[in-house]
Amino acid sequence: MSTPASRSERNGFDYDVVVVGGGPAGCSAGVFTARYGLDTAIFDRGRSSLQRCAHLENYLGFPAGIDIETLYGLLHDHAEEAGCAVAPDLVESVTRVDGDGDRDGGDGGFLVEPQEGEAVTAARVVAATRYDGEYLRPLDGDEMFESSEHDGEEYEQFDRSYPDADGTTPVEGLYVASPSAEADRQAIVAAGRGARVGLTLVDDVRRERGYFDPFDTHHDWVRKEAELNPEWADRDRWREYADGQRPEDHDLDDERWAALREEQIDRRFAAYISDEEVERRRRRAQKRLLTHLDDDAVLERAREIASEGEGDRE
Fold it and tell me: Are both 179 and 58 inside the same structural domain?
């Protein structure tokens, strides 16, 4: 994961990315953007469909289900661990600002105005709130909404077909993870939708920076060092490959391209870790999960393990 860009490198915006909504879709998107090094803020205080559930029983990885409070704690802990700032505030509107971050209109970025805290600017915005897209209306007006009738009365709601399948929209820099026809039925699908939108955003950033196919696509994974092919453990081999893929009409100068190429090689090598590091991360992950579990349940299980050990010795 790279270091987030400085404010000057973000054209004066407060954040690279602001995510509106801190449920599974929003936190998932934020994890991917922040892990890439994009300075990301998540605003979370609104009508959450997940928080209306009594108990979540079909979120993969929790065979007995998971209570909503614990899941939310895990989601926000993960987002913060990745580098996101999580603000417990309701976003009231998102409007345009110019390319220098000045709050007087334009098409460079966005002004995000919360209910209680100070407004912030962002180069990109991810919408991740299931129920209401009204705060987005200033960006594209009625084009974002559709009318429907229920019990003889007409209602207006965010048009779930407004974003493309990858979350991009006609508004440059605006992505929608939710409302979404695909994501709004189940929490685990919402998390997947958020991940897809987050990766789409990262790929767009990479293309703007000068990466080209196949280097514009970002993969966020970790592998064992033993799986690294010896041929590709050679930095010069990566340089040769990258230079060979560079299009003839690539408009970056050689110095800038060399910097991007070395950054990409660094990311490739950082994705491989030793067996010792695998074990260290495993133990740290287990301990981190314990901080979200009920203390009495942990102590009860510890006593059971101790009792089972005594029985084995007998």
Answer: yes
